[in-house]
Amino acid sequence: MTERTEQTDQPTPPEDAPVKTADVKQLYRRPPSFTDLLPWAEYLPESRAFLLEDGISVGALFELTPVGTEARTPRFMAELRDAIQTALTDAIPEDEHTPWVLQVYVQDEPSLRPLQQAVDAYVQPGARDTAFTRHYQAAMKLAELRDLVVTLPTRAAMLGQENPELVILDPPFDIPEMELKMAWSPLLHHNPAHRWLRGVIVDVAREVTS
């Protein structure tokens, strides 16, 4: 019995190989949208519906917003389930002569633009433009409003990849790695809730770096 081995031109990288900038950018690329393949003819603003190519059928689009369900009570989950069921059953009227056909398409949006907007909107009105909040995304906003060049971490820069006022390029020189640390009060060192939160942050950081 003889054994036969095959060699490939591209060796498999080790599991602990460093993540390349191209790999990170690949995670933020927007995939093709399925809506480009649907038979749209025109948009009807009065009914907020899309007329299809046959001139008779119409379609409607709905944007779904994720709802946080972690650490929620069973009662909250039941109410959320009932609300979703009611929305699906009552949104389409029953008609024996012109029945509706419900087709559900789900597509992930890898864009972090909504997250950036949510972070900006999270700041309370009384705390905006203060020493505690004005430095959030300050570099990105300065680059957007003026003819400036800033250096940001790749993931932070990708938050503005859909902004037409920004141009994102790779730096022409090597940048040393930055070390991120956590700091907390000694009074909270043995606090169970605080220890749990620190553990979650460490786990998430390990997943990001891996």
- What does the main sheet amount to? 3 strands, antiparallel
Strand proportion, as a percent range, falls in: 5-15%
- Report the total helices: 6
In terms of structural class, how would the helical and strand content be classed? mainly alpha
Radius of gyration: 25 Å
The proportion of residues forming helix, as a percent range, comes to: 25-40%
Distance between the termini: 41 Å
Number of strands: 3
What is the average of the pLDDT values? 76
Low-confidence stretches: 1-8
Strand order of the largest sheet: 1-2-3
> What is the N-to-C order of secondary-structure elements (H for helix, E for strand)?
HEEEHHHHH
Q: What overall form do the CA principal axes indicate?
A: extended
Short description:
The protein has 210 residues and is mainly alpha-helical.
Detailed description of the structure:
The protein has 210 residues and is mostly helical. It has a domain at 111-170 and 186-209. 31% of the residues lie in helices and 5% in strands. It has 6 helices and 3 strands; from the N terminus they run αβββααααα. The protein has a 3-stranded antiparallel β-sheet, with no helix packed on it. The protein is extended and about 70 Å long. It starts with 20 loop residues before the first helix and ends with a helix. Mean pLDDT is 76; it is low at 1-8.
